[in-house]
Structure formats: structure tokens, C-alpha cells
Amino acid sequence: MVDTSSFGSYEPIMPLSSSVQKPQEALLFTLSNPAMTVRLTDLGAAIVGIDVPDRDGAFEDVVLGFDDAASYYPDGQGTYFGATVGPSANRIEGATVSIDGAVYRLPANEGSNNLHTDRVRGLHAQRWQAEVYESADRIRFAYTLGAGVPGSDLELPGERAFTVAYELDGACLRMTFDAQTTAATFINLTNHSYFNLAGQASGSVADQELQLFAERFLPIDDASIPTGELRSVAGTAFDFRTPKAIGRDIEAKDEQIARGSGYDHCFCIDGYEPDDGTGQLPEPRLAARALDPASGRGMELWTSLPGLQLYTGNFIGGVVGKGGHTYENRGGFALEPQFYPATPSHPAFPNAIFTPERPYRAVTEYRFFTA
Length: 371
Ligand code: BGC
Hints:
Elements: E1 3-10, E2 24-33, E3 36-41, E4 46-53, E5 59-61, H1 69-72, E6 84-85, E7 91-92, E8 96-99, E9 102-105, E10 114-115, E11 129-132, E12 138-145, E13 160-169, E14 172-181, E15 185-186, E16 190-191, E17 194-195, E18 209-212, E19 216-218, E20 231-232, E21 244-245, H2 255-260, E22 264-268, E23 285-291, E24 297-303, E25 307-311, E26 333-338, E27 353-354, E28 360-370
Antiparallel strand pairs: 1-2, 2-3, 3-4, 4-5, 6-16, 7-10, 8-9, 11-12, 12-13, 13-14, 14-28, 15-27, 17-26, 18-21, 18-23, 19-20, 19-22, 22-25, 23-24, 24-28, 25-26
């Protein structure tokens, strides 16, 4: 059985329905097998902890996070630790999305642009319905937006039934994201986990190695909006085609590094083919491989999605997380599989408009190993 316990209570500031009671009590679910233990909460359908072994069998929690629900909500420091972010993850230029000629306006919460939908109302800030199964290694979270309750649409069209299933398969944590909509709508979900393969409280990840299966990345303007160019990584600080320490080029004299204050860019994962529109579960591709050479803990990230945002925790310094540990800048790296940021501004980017006939489906796997 999945183990269920209290994760403490929190006060929703702007609930999407007047029937939501305050305070809310969030739950903590623990899934475990001999290879790994994963802790999840229904608040934001989020990953709270992932314990995996090093080469000597010593387990450590390798994702950043907090000890209780009240620390996750409100997301005062904007970390989005472990959360399911949506319905619009990452940035929307001008905070507007056009769909079939109609213009939808999201909150301008980062200058004139939108980041991660809304800090206190986005999917990461909602309590999802948990569906626990007989088996010890699977759970599914469900949440519906825009089901007739005023204000519950988060400014985008369609009644949208979202589900996120988490399942353990040996040393693999598989996430399956689905959304059915009643009208054409924009959907870009991600899981926003930050990894530190030496252990979440072990300091800088600069010496951990990363390989990205991406020939190209998306350069950004000075507001962090992709310009539309798909630029070759060859000869740049963004070349992770062979494994390299995350810190090696992170201070490079490079306009793109300066604009992101380090890495905060989307990589175009090689080999993306748009889905065939039938709603078949797409095949994940190998997007990233990370390794902590000291402990031998490693992880591959496989995903069906076209993009992978690498964010090296450039602004998380001072956030007090699990066990009272104060994170430092670059104390974790987020790998966020998603459609490209600012997709609505760039018609040539892979299409993230979904319809009743073209439901949203995505699969992401974290496959842990030791070396
Ligand atoms: C963004 C960063 C942001 C972080 C936390 C990432 O997805 O790319 O710019 O600081 O999320 O909100």
C-alpha cells in the first residue's frame, strides 16, 4: 500500500472556488520499493522527496524541498520546488495567448510577461484529488480547471481535466500527464524538481556532471523570453553534448549566460516528432544524464516533450528547506521537460494548443543508476 500521512495545513489565499474550506490539510504519500522511496503531496501534485542509493548503497534525498505544506504555500520565494506547474509553465510573452482569433490574458507577473501562470492560483498551488491504488508503487492526482465555477479557468478556455500519475518501476519514477479539454486551449505542464545528486542539503552542484541530448538551445532576450532562434550549442557554454561539470562554463563571458545569471534556458531535445494527434501515449526520448562523480549517484531523464529547461538555481540562495538547511545559489539544478517557453509568440515552435480531439499527453521518467 501507499503510505499516507498528514503533511500539515495551509491557508489558500485565492481559492478557485468559494466552497474551498480554510485551512486545507495536505497529505503526504510515500511510494517505495527496494530501489527508491518517493514522497509526494496532493498540494500541487508535487514531488517532496526522492531517496536513492549511492554506489555503496547509502540512500540520500536528491531533490530540494520543504518539510511541510505551509512552507510550500504560498510559494513566497517562487521556487516551485518539485511542483506540477501549469496550465502554463515557464514564460508567455506579453502574458497573452491567441487561440482561434480570441486573445486570452494571463497575469503580467514578470514585467509585462507571465511566468508559471500564477504564484497563488496555478495548478502547483491547488490541492489535487489523490487516487490511491492497491499496488504500493502507483498514485494518480486529478484536478479540473474551468468547470463552471467563476474564476476557476485561470484565464484560459475549456473545462480541462488534468491528471498526473506517478509510478515506480525499479529505479525509475515515471510521470504520465494527461489533460482532456472541452475547447481548444493552451497547455504547457512541467514537473519542477531541482536535483542535487550528492543529497539535497550538500551545497553547490557545480561539480556534478550533466549531459544534454540537445544540438540546439533557445537564446533569450533580456526579459528571458526566447527570441525564436534555435541556436547550435557548438562552441558555446551551452554545449553539454558530452558530459561536463555544471559549473565549468557557468561564469563564462557570454551574453546568454549573463541574461540567465547562469543557465536558465530551454534546450531543444534531439529527435522530437510531434504527436500523431490520436492521443496515443508518446514514446519518451533520452534528454539528459546527470552524475555526481563523488557518490556515483546518477539519473537519466527521458521525456516525450520537445524542450528541457535547465535552471541552475541561480536565485535560490537563502531559501530554508528540508531539515532547516539553507540552500545556496546553485544548490540544485532543475530539469523541466516542457513545450518551448513563449510558444504562443513563435508559430514555428511545436504546437501546444490542445483540443477535444487532440488531448494533452506527456511522459517523463527519472531513471536512477549508480556508477
Ligand atoms: C524559470 C526561472 C525561475 C524558476 C523559479 C524556472 O522555470 O526558468 O527563471 O526563476 O523557474 O520560478
